[in-house]
Records
---
Amino acid sequence: SQTIHQWPATLVQPVGSPLSLECTVEGTSNPNLYWYRQAAGRGLQLLFYSVGIGQISSEVPQNLSASRPQDRQFILSSKKLLLSDSGFYLCAWSGGDYGYTFGSGTRLTVV
Amino acid sequence: AQSVSQHNHHVILSEAASLELGCNYSYGGTVNLFWYVQYPGQHLQLLLKYFSGDPLVKGIKGFEAEFIKSKFSFNLRKPSVQWSDTAEYFCAVELEGNNRLAFGKGNQVVVIP
């Protein structure tokens, strides 16, 4: 069966520090991968999506970047975090008739 | 601009009451439609989805949704809610072939025992 792993679950980082959030998918190949950010009262905002290794599309300009070094690995990064980067980050994958499946999320607090 | 609209962000109701959450989208073309639920402290789970066929879709936990193409709507319903239905509900739309899911802002539903 397909599973999606996302870590860490919570993270507190100082302003100006780097960020690396990792997401991996098991049980499928060549999935579409996504990073969303969830903010209270604002729903889920799509940040990045990828249809293959090295292929990244950005939906909104921001202080973040994404990379897909392997077929089932999707990484969200920042060189220098801002206070406004605080939020709940969700990784998701889609493929075939499975629709979209979401990870358990990372609560990022920038202090 | 393309968008997904959910109104009445906060809904409070008593057990056994009926629930209906509205969802409207502004995309042209063929769409795939989803409702997701997020229970307190848990991750997003799929309630139901519509790709094609019967516009009345049955989901898990007694939920259903109706796709009305002429109204660009996909409203979620449950005839009789339980305390355990307290959660945040998200409508989402995928433009067919677009490989991206756009979400509404969500409805925070609180069911009072």
---
Amino acid sequence: AQSVSQHNHHVILSEAASLELGCNYSYGGTVNLFWYVQYPGQHLQLLLKYFSGDPLVKGIKGFEAEFIKSKFSFNLRKPSVQWSDTAEYFCAVRSFMNRDDKIIFGKGTRLHILP
Amino acid sequence: GAGVSQSPSNKVTEKGKDVELRCDPISGHTALYWYRQSLGQGLEFLIYFQGNSAPDKSGLPSDRFSAERTGGSVSTLTIQRTQQEDSAVYLCASSTRLGGLFFGEGSRLTVL
């Protein structure tokens, strides 16, 4: 079965620092990849997604992610974080293994930005 | 409605009681998911409905959990004989056939 790993459970950065959150998945066939964000007290929102084409995906609020098929990775990046980026970030994968196209999530990374 | 609607937003129940959680997806979305969110566990997949296909129940943690989706729209997640470990936020999400997910606000369940 497909699995999703987010290795950083809790990240603390100062404002203006660069951010990279790791995401790896286990199934190497066709995949759709997502990053979702949950701000404090709010529901989950889509940050960006990759279905096909350019492996470098731009999302909202200055976030981007790069799909590297050879590494089974879809890391999230932002060159300069802001205090308002404090949130929990979830990586998610839809694979098409054995006609199973459900979306599963990693355990999330809590990002805390110091003002 | 414009978004995914879940009710109740908060539910406090006693151990051993049954609870029902409701999800009203975005109109026209064929896919509907239930996830459970608890501290440190991320989003745990529970069940997935896609159109008229048989649901994928592989994430349901025990036979006390069940879900149905009537008329391809509203879904109800039922937890029988609730236990304290069932306390969590239950999230519903919907999407087009292979689109990204839109989430509801969740139903926070507390089992005393």
---
Amino acid sequence: SAVISQKPSRDICQRGTSLTIQCQVDSQVTMMFWYRQQPGQSLTLIATANQGSEATYESGFVIDKFPISRPNLTFSTLTVSNMSPEDSSIYLCSVPYTDTQYFGPGTRLTVL
Amino acid sequence: DQQVKQNSPSLSVQEGRISILNCDYTNSMFDYFLWYKKYPAEGPTFLISISSIKDKNEDGRFTVFLNKSAKHLSLHIVPSQPGDSAVYFCAASEDFNKFYFGSGTKLNVKP
């Protein structure tokens, strides 16, 4: 299995600020994904982080709001910019590995 | 438009009995299906998968059934244990990259 870690595990932020979430995988993987789980809802894909090229965003998500970096095959960051209370969610990274997708433990973000 | 649906938000089962969690999808191009378990404050944990070439996959107490014609899959847990109490998500994908998730079913296994 792939072991995935995320930092920070949780944070409380003020409206208008930005937070960068880190995702580290213990294996080299071509693709990494960023998901969001809003309170009481399912997981929604934000974007695909591709190493060596720009991230691919899903409908409803834009690069200015959620810039993503992918400097190498084991690491990615997601920034939540100019935060509002509606951004309060759990943010998760995931990677496809062998026969499934593995998820990180998530970053619980609360925006006041 | 939600492509994967879990119509039961919650399920309560007695310990030792069978838990059946259901999932429906609309996209006939989905070929890969996964079930995850999620505890509060943790990331989803992979449970079991099935591809469209199969109609059943079994792993210990967990069995997933796929009915492609009905666009329906289910997860059976036998026997259910209190430690199984969690939120269960089904997910589906065409290409094993982008997955669509259901809204989850909260399972409560009573001792």
---
Amino acid sequence: DARVTQTPRHKVTEMGQEVTMRCQPILGHNTVFWYRQTMMQGLELLAYFRNRAPLDDSGMPKDRFSAEMPDATLATLKIQPSEPRDSAVYFCASGLTAGRFSGELFFGEGSRLTVL
Amino acid sequence: AQTVTQSQPEMSVQEAETVTLSCTYDTSESDYYLFWYKQPPSRQMILVIRQEAYKQQNATENRFSVNFQKAAKSFSLKISDSQLGDAAMYFCAYKVHYQGGSEKLVFGKGTKLTVNP
């Protein structure tokens, strides 16, 4: 049963600490999206990768956030230093895009981050 | 910029009845995709239904169907014979695939659906 795996499911940390969230996309998928979900803002796109290359990170605060795909089986989202306003649920989603075809996105279960 | 608007923050329906969730979007693109995702309390985002903009025929998946009005940029979701398990947040989403390779999936703010027994 193919699925997107995210770790950790829950993370509580103190302001100023580094936080790293990990995502294992579905094998064979070539696109990865990172979203942040809050009550106030809803689902915000943070970053988009295609074939491991970052094509859009315009929604990501550059001073403290960074996203990478060291290989096809791992995407990471790092916050350093973390702030209370970063508290949210972070979702990773993967999909397959080829030519004009753009398939559905499959979402992970999310990582709930609380920064005290 | 593309935007997706869900004008109903909350909706309720009686079990076995029909409910329609509204969604409008703004775009200058002619080729794109539209989706409805369901997010139950477990937090998992689950695809409910998908529509390609170039297809005139409205998509249907069992009890779920859409009313896609391309000229009006409207994409509503109809749930027939509502079940208790349909209670969730429902998100309308718009996806465009740019020629340069980039893609964008934009979500509405969501509609919370309550199903009353």
